[in-house]
Amino acid sequence: AVYSQGRVLGDRSVLHKYINPNVMAVAVESGSADKGQVDIQLYDMISGTQLYHARHKQYSGPVHLLVVENWLMYHMWCSKLRRYEVVVVEFFLPSAPNTTEFSSLSPKTPSFSIQQAYIATSPLSAISVTTTLKSITNRAVLFAEAGGRIALVPKALLDPRRPTIPTTEDRQEQLIPYTPQLTLSPMAYVTYNKTLQDIRGMITGVTGLESTSLLFVYGTDLYFARVTPAKTFDMLNEDFDYYLIGLVLLGLFFGTIVTQALAENKALNKKWK
User: Fold this and answer.
1) I need a labelling partner for 256 at 20 to 30 A (CA). Which of 40, 128, 210, 272 fits?
2) d(CA 153, CA 223)
């Protein structure tokens, strides 16, 4: 599900997302490990139209791809600089679509894209994204590191529009200043102090709570957890004082009855004058 078809900017203008449910991303690797290249291609599976193509020279796999809403993300090895990189690309339309229904037979191709690259900290075994009931909660990307840990990375950290020098509009939009290194805090790992062996994939699912997403990791080990990309904004804290709120509601109930009786007596006395 897609909660919003556009993205409101700091100057109150709107970037309209290119939403195509029929897209497929393909990574093609050629050449040797040190002098090879990786081609990233995005196709419409119905019409066969190529929507995006990027060629990265002196890069190699394994390549991990992720396509969600209007953005594409991929992780690969840069043999020239000897490091792993994550590239994020977002696609937009020149104007708002005239209809809410999409058809690949009369498609609108994205007019422009915005992309940014980040230096990753480690090789990956799999990549996925959180899903929620109404897609209102900001998404987070799940990185399954080759070392056996699962990192929950907010999409805001992987935003291709992160500015080097933020302007006033950027601050109003709450864009994080750009830094090439994708640094993760120890609290970002949903596996805590556990290490999973031979991670082969991840599956995410929705719950009855908009703030919570389910995560299932499979491989030699199986791991299941609840993740909250934007914290538990729709749940009460465990130390919530139910007795106090009950007393307040009870006081309001009796206060309403008393004031209603006083108002009726006042109106009756006024009629007798």
Assistant:
1) 272
2) 18
Give the pair of three-digit tokens for residue 228.
Answer: 């909250």
pTM value > 0.70:
yes
What does each C-alpha distance from 117 to 23, 86, 174, 179, 193 come to in angstroms? Answer: 22, 6, 20, 10, 29
- DSSP lists the bridge partners of residue 77 as 60, 84
Q: How many Å apart are CA 164 and CA 236, to the nearest integer?
A: 38
- CA separation for the pair 77, 183 (Å, rounded): 17
Q: Name the one residue in this structure whose structure tokens are 């006042």.
A: 266
User: What separation in angstroms does the CA of 213 have from each of 21, 89, 210, 262?
Assistant: 21, 24, 8, 51
Paired sense of beta strands 59-68 and 71-78, if any: antiparallel
- What is the total residue count of the chain? 273
Amino acid at 71: W
Q: Three-class SS string for the chain?
A: CCCCCEEECCCCCEEEECCCCCEEEEEEEECCCCCCEEEEEEEECCCCCEEEEEEEECEEEEEEEEEECCEEEEEEEECCCCEEEEEEEEEEECCCCCCCCCCCCCCCCCCEEEEEEEECCCCEEEEEECCCCCCCCCCEEEEEECCCCEEEEEHHHHCCCCCCCCCHHHHHCCCCCCCCECCCCHHHECCCCCCCCCEEEEEEEECCCCCCEEEEEEECCCEEEEECCCCCCCCCCCCCCHHHHHHHHHHHHHHHHHHHHHHHHHHHHHHHC
pLDDT in tens, 107-164: 667 778 899 999 998 899 999 999 988 888 889 999 999 989 999 999 999 999 999 9
Whether the link from the prior residue into 229 is cis, omega within 30° of 0, is no
8 A C-beta contact, residue 44 and residue 108: no
Q: Which two tokens stand for residue 167?
A: 């302007």
